[in-house]
Design goal:
heterodimer, A: alpha/beta, Rossmann fold, 2 domains, 7-stranded mixed sheet, 5-stranded parallel sheet, 13 helices, globular, B: mainly alpha, two-stranded antiparallel ribbon, 11 helices, 4 strands, 70% helix, 3% strand
């Protein structure tokens, strides 16, 4: 039987464990049993500007649940692990979270490529995993998602909609909205980037556009001068990039400075203020698609945004923070159905998985519920563009591929 | 439009930076036969030193005033670290088996990376580097970006000064003598310890210039930028003939050009489209290294000053 540390005192200890910088989870004495929610995301290095949003989004959800005593008799805490956007590290973290019997659910990871290495570990342990940001279709719909959808892991859920929609939405907007006819497509060869750019290519060609050239870069590359020269001379009127902000912010800078006046269009991995900060004026006019609708337009998210800003967390809530908040809340609600009167049943993890599958509530990013594959039923997407040095939403909707 | 001139220029800019870093490897190797694997990190700290100076200067200061100060600050940091490394990490091991200082260098490289990662404010992600805003320039069909202007001025200038220094100055001649035969040089009254420190300091200076150039060119500096850059520069040094300062610069240029040409044009060869593209750049760099080691182990120019391995 899983016996959880019963505590009045660990409230203070949780602080060091989660790296939170202040003592807001001091509301730790609201319950007599502590449940840990694991978080896995890149917290340092590559991708950490977006990864930190996940950690702090989850942290705020836990703080709120403890403050409001959402689940009577249970105190929640966060255990945040850094996967550095490296799949192998993510897998080690998954093993670590699984072996901690206090962990009843995990939020993360950020990267689809990392998720592929974690899913099996969680499935074996029957531990629920909700990613706020994974978008690769095969994670929920199997390798042959285009022909025969089959859910590979019943413990895996996500609050972000898939690249099948995101890539198509981008292609539609590029062709019909921006009237671009010739695209150059570059990706970083990762699960997320390569998948996204492939779907963009297919949909763009289907619309009648032409893919005039393709190329790949390495994660961590900084010199794109050769590539930029190629793009400039290809006659492309738009560059689509499948990958993260770390490379694309440098790519767009070199592209514009080389004299190519075409916008760079990317996915949610680029949607962060860091992109504009690094690329400076050269980011102007660039576009991304991102999941959901703009957080600051959602009335339900007002408190969340205010809290996030008040705590001066680094990183950006805008991309995944609100989704991490909702993913964490889904786990908290599921735990609430499973843990009664401060007693954790022996098969708590399996019961939490079932409870998450059937969950349905109004989160801060919209309605939270999952379909038979573990995908979110919320298929909203938004195109953002850099206008006057800020990401501005230009179109919200959903895609209808094929 | 013909892209060849532009691609050649791209290769030259990239190669100039490799060359600047490679000088540090080759100077130190030429004099103490040590491959200083921490040199990539000295390049990184040079970039961070320059950034620090910019951050303490008042906001909105013109880059024309800031840049010299940044170069000075970056140089100071990089030279101090390079000289400190020599004094506290390598000198105690002089005379020890070759492997000992080599492993020390790798350890030092990791230590420096982690120090910056943990202690420098917000260095856990790439930090934005200030930019020059006056380009780009057009020469014929070639576009030269603002960040590259600094490189094409700094690299040949540094190289020329170094060449004069080594050839004509008293210290420079002492360096040549130490490189040829440290024991005899010492008997002739040359303070070899001082010469070794100077070699490390010059390496640090060139690394700081390269670090600043890197920041200007790519818009950010990060704690792990020294790893691949260091590896490529080491390749350049070996390519040109390690121990030979002209070889280091030549090796850098050759490496940069080879990378640019390979990534730009290999994909166009029928049947080779799988092997082209930007993601193959490091592959071609190291293939070139293997070829040179196979067919001309002494490097393109060979080592001119010493006959020892």
């Amino acid at each position: 039987m899983v016996i959880l540390t019963s505590v009045l005192t660990t409230g203070a200890l949780t602080l060091t464990a989660c790296g939170s910088r202040n003592n807001d989870s001091k509301g730790g004495d609201s319950g007599n049993v502590t449940v840990t929610i694991g978080v896995d995301a890149p917290l340092t290095g590559q991708n950490s500007a977006t990864g930190l949003g996940i950690q702090y989004g989850a942290q705020i959800a836990v703080d709120d649940a403890n403050k409001n005593k959402t689940v009577p008799g249970v105190t929640f805490k966060i255990k945040a692990l850094d996967d550095k956007a490296i799949p192998a590290t993510g897998q080690q973290n998954a093993t670590q979270l699984v072996s901690d019997s206090n962990v009843l659910g995990v939020v993360g990871p950020l990267n689809s490529g990392v998720a592929t290495q974690m899913q099996q570990t969680f499935a074996t342990a029957n531990l629920v995993e909700i990613s706020p940001s994974n978008t690769a279709p095969e994670l929920t719909q199997g390798k042959n998602w285009q022909t025969a959808k089959q859910r590979p892991f019943k413990t895996y859920f996500r609050t972000a909609t898939t690249d099948a929609l995101q890539g198509a939405f981008a292609a539609d907007y590029a062709y019909n909205g921006l009237k671009k006819k010739k695209a150059f497509v570059v990706d970083d060869k990762q699960t997320y980037g390569a998948g996204l750019s492939k779907i963009f290519r297919q949909q763009f060609v289907k619309q009648g556009g032409k893919v005039i050239g393709t190329d790949h870069v390495n994660v961590g590359d900084r010199d794109f001068s050769t590539l930029v020269t190629k793009i400039k001379n290809s006659g492309a009127d738009i560059l689509y990039y499948g990958g993260q902000y770390d490379e694309s912010e440098v790519l767009t800078k070199q592209l514009k400075e080389a004299g190519a006046k075409i916008p760079l269009f990317g996915g949610d991995g680029m949607f962060t203020p860091t992109y504009i900060k690094t690329a400076g004026k050269t980011a102007e006019g660039d576009l991304v698609t991102s999941i959901g609708v703009p957080v600051d337009t959602l009335p339900a998210a007002k408190d969340f945004v205010a809290t996030y800003k008040a705590k001066k967390y680094p990183g950006d809530y805008g991309t995944y923070g609100s989704y991490a908040y909702d993913a964490t809340t889904a786990i908290i609600k599921a735990v609430g159905q499973v843990v009664k009167n401060g007693k954790v049943p022996s098969d708590a993890r399996a019961k939490v998985v079932d409870a998450v599958q059937n969950t349905s509530f109004d989160g801060i990013s919209g309605k939270i519920s999952f379909d038979q594959y573990g995908d979110t039923t919320n298929k909203q997407l938004t195109v953002y563009q850099v206008i006057d040095g800020k990401w501005k939403s230009v179109k919200s909707g959903t895609a209808n591929p094929k | 439009m013909n892209t060849l001139p532009q691609q050649l220029a791209n290769g030259l800019f990239l190669g100039s930076m490799y060359g600047l870093i490679a000088i540090g490897y080759t100077m130190v190797y030429g004099i103490v036969q040590l491959i200083n694997f921490a040199h990539g990190e000295i390049f990184m700290t040079g970039g961070f030193g320059a950034l620090t100076v910019y951050l303490v200067l008042p906001d909105g200061i013109s880059m024309w005033i800031a840049l010299p100060a940044m170069l000075l600050g970056g140089t100071l940091v990089a030279v101090l670290i390079a000289v400190g490394a020599e004094r506290f990490a390598y000198r105690p091991l002089r005379g020890a088996p070759r492997l000992a200082p080599l492993i020390t260098a790798i350890g030092l490289s990791l230590a420096l990376q982690q120090l910056v990662f943990n202690l420098y404010p917000n260095a856990k992600t790439a930090r934005v580097f200030p930019q020059l805003h006056f380009g780009p320039f057009h020469v014929g069909s070639i576009t030269i970006q603002s960040g590259d202007v600094f490189l094409i001025i700094a690299a040949p200038l540094c190289m020329a000064v170094l060449a004069f220094f080594v050839r004509l100055s008293r210290t420079g001649r002492a360096m040549q003598a130490t490189a040829q035969d440290p024991d005899t040089a010492q008997l002739m009254g040359i303070d070899t310890n001082r010469i070794i420190v100077i070699a490390f300091a010059i390496g640090g200076l060139f690394a700081a210039v390269a670090g600043t150039a890197y920041g200007l060119k790519y818009g950010s500096v990060s704690y792990d930028m020294g790893f691949l850059a260091g590896l490529k520069a080491f390749t350049a040094a070996v390519l040109g003939g390690i121990g030979n300062i002209y070889g280091a610069m030549l090796g850098g240029l050759v490496l940069g050009l080879a990378e640019a040409m390979a990534t730009a044009y290999i994909a166009n060869i029928p049947g080779m489209h799988q092997l082209g593209g930007g993601s193959w750049a490091p592959v071609w760099a190291f293939v070139l290294l293997i070829l040179v080691l196979l067919f001309r182990p002494q490097g393109l120019l060979g080592e001119r000053v010493a006959d020892r391995a």
